[in-house]
Automatic annotation (TrEMBL):
Pfam families: HTH_5, Methyltransf_11. Residues 6-100 form the HTH arsR-type domain. It comes from the Bacteria. CDD domains: AdoMet_MTases, HTH_ARSR. SMART domains: HTH_ARSR (SM00418). This is Metalloregulator ArsR/SmtB family transcription factor. It comes from Sessilibacter corallicola.
């Protein structure tokens, strides 16, 4: 590319960026995408805009490099572009900084709550109806023994503040609870579905683990009843793809961690096997590792150790450690 062509390309990119940032609705969309991803139909409901109009605005934002997409089965979800992926990085970041200072209107907040509740209800309904066969369905993707040892090793090598308190979010049938109970003085098992929580309780009782308290709570809300700055370790195995807002989950769990505490997330890498929605109640088809890192960073957590491994059925698992550092 010649110098003239390079200059023209830079001018075109800058023009597209300034055009994208020149519309109030597009700025509101960027503000909303700071903490979560949404489909076109969801954005239409949130802002009371026809789909043709919203698609037009999203196309402009996409052409400017301000948003990117991910496919979830037959749906397309939009998110803000990750750092270091844009030509005019400083200007893009300044736009984000300015829109993030905007207050979200009450009408938008109300619509967001409706959508969050719909996502929560979808997940809860699945687990209420499929509690007894959850394990067999989950085993279609990855049974717990497949990643148990890797999580245990990562936990052992984590430099934790103490061995006082561990929390497991969404313990499933409770298979990892005895491991936590052996390593920590007190363990809290938290789930938003009472049937699943009872299954975990039975497994723990049969394993003679007595230092576990079972709590019915919703980790996808704005805070946990446990309080803040409490846990040395929080574990969430195959949970993120079931919650309405994984980004919000990171923020909630970060509050619950002590300084220097660790969050260990086990989940699927991004995939396109849409059958997992119906068979396993998945809301999200795995995650790009960069998404997890960005949500962690937004929540005040830094990257720690990472383990990735592929399964024979085509899925790939990521086990990620994130560390809370109040000095960040």
């Amino acid at each position: 590319m010649t110098a003239t062509e390079t200059t023209n390309q830079a001018l075109n990119d800058l023009s597209a960026l300034l055009k994208a940032a020149s519309d109030p609705l597009r700025l509101q969309v960027l503000r909303l995408l700071a903490q979560d991803s949404y489909g076109v139909s969801e954005l239409c409901r949130i802002f009371s805009v026809r789909q043709s109009g919203m698609s037009h605005h999203l196309k402009i934002l996409s052409q400017a490099g301000l948003v990117t997409t991910r496919r979830e089965g037959n749906s397309i979800f939009y998110r803000r572009t990750l750092p270091n992926a844009f030509t005019h990085e400083s200007l893009r970041n300044e736009i984000y900084t300015q829109v993030d200072q905007l207050e979200i209107s009450q009408s938008v907040v109300e619509q967001l709550e409706v959508i969050r509740n719909e996502r929560v209800s979808s997940s809860q309904e699945f687990f209420s109806l499929n509690n007894e066969k959850f394990r067999s369905q989950q085993d279609l993707i990855a049974s717990f023994p497949v990643y148990k040892e890797q999580i245990s090793e990562l936990m052992k090598t984590a430099d934790l503040p103490s061995a006082d308190i561990a929390v497991e979010i969404g313990p499933g049938e409770g298979e990892f609870l005895p491991v936590l109970a052996d390593a920590f003085s007190q363990v809290y098992a938290i789930d938003n579905n009472n049937n699943m929580l009872e299954s975990a309780r039975v497994f723990a009782d049969n394993s003679k683990a007595r230092n576990i308290e079972f709590i019915l709570d919703d980790a996808s809300s704005n805070e946990l009843a446990l309080g803040e700055d409490l846990a040395d370790l929080i574990v969430a195995n195959m949970v993120c793809h079931h919650v309405p807002s994984p980004a919000n989950l990171f923020a909630v769990l970060a509050k619950t961690l002590k300084n220097r505490g660790s969050l260990i997330i086990t989940d699927l890498c991004l995939h396109n096997q849409n059958w997992t929605r119906e068979a396993c109640g998945d809301l999200w088809l795995g995650f790009d590792p960069n998404d997890l890192s960005q949500w962690a960073q937004n929540a005040g957590l830094s990257d720690g150790q990472s383990i990735y491994f592929a399964l024979r059925n085509g899925f790939q698992i990521q086990i990620r450690q994130f560390i809370k550092n109040n000095a960040i």
